[in-house]
Design brief:
heterodimer, A: alpha+beta, four-stranded antiparallel beta sheet, two-stranded antiparallel sheet, 32% strand, globular, B: mainly beta, Gyrase A, domain 2, six-stranded mixed beta sheet, five-stranded antiparallel beta sheet
């Protein structure tokens, strides 16, 4: 099934133009309270949900932006594109 | 210091007029290039990437950066393409403009990039054989920038003008793709009588755009 991804810069494009960047696991854990187990969990373990998950994508053949989308892993279709398709803020 | 610079491509035509400019061998005109669409090597034109958190504060060559990604601005031979929130590319398409890029936010990319122009009739019939990018999107006003695969190579493409199947298109990618890219374009354009063109052909197309 062809995956179409809505890039915030270039619009809807063929999924083959993108590289998958993994599940969005939220911000990096705070260093002070970090244990080896929680760091290992953050780096290596995934939720692998059967349903809608928030994930990172990189537009490697296009604008070079990293952004997040919601994708339904059961249908391989992007879901709810208006909610949070965004490039992270530059600090 | 004398410096020899080489374009990433050598187009398969016989130059009728050429000149040495800043170390580049620039072909101004090829034999028998009148009529039909032209493929023009503009890799010698100076190019920069501009990157900054507050990119709007820059006025390269006295021009303001376009507001939104995908927009381009062409004035006096300088083309500025807004690439994203923090990045723009600047291509100098005319030699008559002074340099003004001393700020460290500018990175010169001239010798790392291939820059080609397709100009004339039927060029969008040629491009549709090589890419699925929508150059005929009626919601976009020329000039505009599209990123994407062109002949499977990640490219920046800018439509400078468009009238049905005719117009002027610029295409930039890493210089290592140069030989295969020109080969693919010339093969795709064979049925439309695409020929190598010199810089004067591009200057004439730019004059038409300027009106």
């Amino acid at each position: 099934m062809a995956l179409l991804i809505n890039c915030p810069v270039c619009g809807k494009r063929n999924g083959y133009e993108f590289r998958y960047g993994g599940e969005d696991k939220g911000p990096r854990p705070d260093d002070e309270s970090l244990s080896q187990a929680s760091w290992c969990d953050y780096v290596h373990n995934n939720n692998c949900v059967a349903g809608i998950q928030k994930e990172w994508w990189f537009h490697k053949d296009g604008c070079g932006a990293w952004f997040t989308i919601y994708r339904d892993t059961r249908t391989n279709l992007e879901a709810d594109t208006s909610a949070d398709t965004s490039i992270p803020e530059v600090k | 210091m004398n410096c020899e610079r080489r374009s990433p491509v050598t187009l398969p035509g016989r130059p009728a007029r050429s000149e040495k400019r800043d170390g580049w061998n620039v072909v101004l005109e090829y034999e028998g290039e009148s009529g039909g669409p032209l493929l023009i090597d503009l890799s010698h034109g100076r190019k920069w990437d501009l990157q900054d958190v507050d990119i709007a504060r820059f006025k390269p060559f006295g021009m303001s950066i376009p507001d939104d990604p995908g927009q381009s601005r062409l004035e006096n031979g300088i083309l500025i393409n807004r690439m994203g929130r923090t990045q723009a590319s600047i291509w100098r398409l005319s030699e008559q403009v002074p340099d003004d890029t001393a700020d460290p936010a500018f990175t010169e990319t001239t010798e790392g990039q291939l820059l080609l122009a397709l100009a004339g009739p039927n060029i969008f019939s040629i491009t549709e054989k090589l890419t699925s990018l929508e150059f005929d999107d009626s919601s976009k006003v020329t000039p505009f920038l599209l990123f994407g695969p062109f002949s499977h190579v990640p490219c920046q493409t800018v439509v400078l003008s468009r009238s049905k199947r005719d117009g002027v298109l610029l295409l930039a990618c890493s210089r290592g793709y140069g030989r295969d890219m020109t080969h693919a374009i010339l093969e795709a354009g064979r049925e439309f009588r695409l020929k190598p063109g010199g810089e004067n052909g591009f200057a004439a197309a730019m004059k038409e755009i300027a009106g």
